[in-house]
Model the fold of this input.
Amino acid sequence: MTARLVERTYRLVAEQVPVTFDPKDEAALRAIEEAHQLAPNTITRADWIKPLHRRFPGQRTAFLMLTMAGVNHANAAISGLTIAGRKVLVRRDYDEPKRCSRCQEYAGHFARDCKAPHDVCTNCAGTHATAQCPHVGDPLQHHCANCKESGHAAWDRACPTLRARVSAQVHRKANSGFRFFVTNAPETWVSDEEELARAPPPPTVWSQVQHHFDRVDTAPHPHASQQGTLDAFYGTPEQSAGPSRRQ
Done:
């Protein structure tokens, strides 16, 4: 009887992957490996997290579960992958706070198992699917479904609710709070808590509209040339403020 060495696999979540991608296309998986200098057959499996029949009309992106062989290749993928022509965020799935893409809650389930009575938008917390949100490009309308606060969306990694979840999880199990799978390489020792601490705070409404006012202040005044003509005729305000003529 001979023993067989089975290499450990690592599960990752790739976010906002174009739905045109076919996870069962072996050639497409090999192309991803080649583009990112990963060993052949590093991606052992790829599956959509949400069942196809639960997608919404017009949905363009979805979350993809990747199973990878080799810790170093898994960590390389976490640094970012390009899938179907789109650079996507990749994160660990192992023992991390899971936010349901349907109800937006950190309740430990995915959309396929969600029991919520209706969808909750990740952008504005409205009772509609995120793909149908009319405020996708308008941060002034962003409202977090978890914090119940305006100024950021539920997907924002600087969300106070996410920060609290990560902090609590790190205290429960030290090995679960790291962005990468921990190896002997020092660059894998950065915790999610440290990474979130370095992230900027959720944007305020003013920070997102200030640039509009800055442009107005620096733009040339439409009546500037007229003002120069009037000053030449009547004198500048400083000249007008000189001593009055005696009667």
About this structure: The chain has seven helices and six strands. The first strand starts at residue 9 and ends at 18. The first helix runs from residue 26 to 35.
